[in-house]
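Before a colleague's protein record goes any further, I have to sign it off. Alongside the sequence sits a line of tokens, each denoting a local backbone shape. I want your independent view on whether this chain really folds as the tokens say. Where you disagree with what is written, explain briefly why. This is what I was given:
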Amino acid sequence: MNLLISFILIISIDTLRYDALESMPLTGKHLHRFQQVESCWTPVPLTLPAHISMLSGRYPYEHGIRNNGHYRLKDETVYLPQLLHERGYRTAAFVSAQVLSAKYGLQRGFDVYHEPPIGFKEQPAETTIAHCLEFMKQEGVNDRPTLVFLHLYDPHAPYRGHDRAAPNSRAAYYAEVTHVDQQLQQIWSFLDEQNRWGSTLVVLTSDHGEDLGDHGEFQHGLYLYDTTTRVPFFLHAPAERTLRQTGSLVDLAPTILDYLGIEKPMEMTGTSLTDPDSKTCIIESLAAYELMRWPKMYGLVEGGWKYIEGDGLELYKLDQGGETQNLAEEFPDRVRQCKTRLDPVKLASRETPRGDPELLALGYLSPVSDGEIRTIKRSDQRRVLEALHNSFLDLDTGNFEGIWDGVMNALDADRSNPALHFYLLTAALRLNKQLPEDLINSIKPDYDNSGSTAYMLGQYLEKQGFKEKASNYYEQAQEQNPLFIEPSLALMILALTSGRPDEARPQVELLLRYGAQEEAGILAEAVWRMYQGNPHYALLFLDKVEQKLQSSVRYWLIKGYIQSSQKKNESALVSFQRAHELGYISPEFILGWATIALEINDLVQARRLFAEFLERYPRHKEAVNVKEILAAYPQN
């Protein structure tokens, strides 16, 4: 083991384009200490699988994590934090976004795994760096070798601009990068002040870049052009070693092990960057297929050439730059060689199951299906991707009318696109708009393995009063992706508000398992305490977290349900009123709320609620009974 290196710091700046280094002048002043891998490639332009490749030394088709949000690291996957932890290293991770949540298995081998708090999908660089520095300054941290992983998310959309540029403009993206640079100065100052450079190995890199519309993709994850797949890579180490000029993020873990004098496990495909032999760098993305059933994308970089196949064949000479001149027809032999090299990757894409073996054994997951692949013109793809990008930004600002208009326009280019359907359903829910029946029938949640489309369709149908259909779609979403906990939460609330609490129990157990760090986990904990015969403590628990979740519809629903079960009817009415103000509505909810009002003899509120029920759901099976109740309690 290399005793010169007692501290390892891996810094990953999410969504950092290669050319964005020019917007990091403060960091640039320190880069003279580092060696650069001039041509470094991410194996996949998506946050979760790219970081797994970084820390496992394996390609996505090998470690099985192919996308964000619905994959979980398998326990048997070789993993750098675990390897070092087993050798006595203190290990800590500080991540800035829920896309790297511990629930996806990344916490394995880390003594500390710090992620954004409940209710926050991300946090700014200054917050994450503050927690990281607090750890590094702790007394005793230097007593044994240490690994720190620091992930900063600011350059990811939406782009705030930091008063230097209009929000969500191209300039705002680079302003985000400059903001990260300013915050990173605290890390460089710490290493300077503590005189740590002589014993510290530092890696500065990114998981992927950002297209910004250069190739028709406004963010990242679908195409494989340099704007999203070429990443900065700098390494500083006390030992003077020469790094080769071409590499992949899969080489990061083997390189660190090489510097430490630890033998690389056979399972690691990556090689140390100190090995002068240039390797083939494989690139992939299945996101377009999984989300929209567009073609899967595969590529490789080798010998100064870049090859891409998906909805066509593309070959570029890297030293010509720009990826504007497709040479595939001029060099058919090289195209054939590249296609052959990618055959094992494509075969693994058909065979790789999602998630870990434990989930598979429980019957929650199935292998990714080849299914139907839909090819549309690149010009239409651009229309769709621009609409999706704008919808993402509009969702952040609450501009649901903008989402509705943009998606309706883009549906002309790709009517069966589930990603567009997701945003359309979101807008319909918030705007209380009813979708045309033919459009509802065109929605295909089977196309979306993330479960998001099935879940949103369930939400829409539940609000329309079709509880059984909604429940079926929630179950479909749950089967597609058990790590997406919203469907389980919806099923739990449906069971509780429909008077079938026993059906909520399996959902509670799943939420406690995979949603412990999220809003859903808190609510499931309260329900669990009620099941254990402690409703009083369940309500005390909810009172304690009210400030954190006071804007959560589900919080007030659960609280109202537990209060009503304990005959605290006045309090339950207040909770249900709050849930209603925040936008929740369903036939069972209104009936339950009205029934409680009757029980405490609040006839005015009961009549109002029963009348609302008849207005919203005139053909509901309980409509006749509700009319009889209203007749029995006429207005004075």
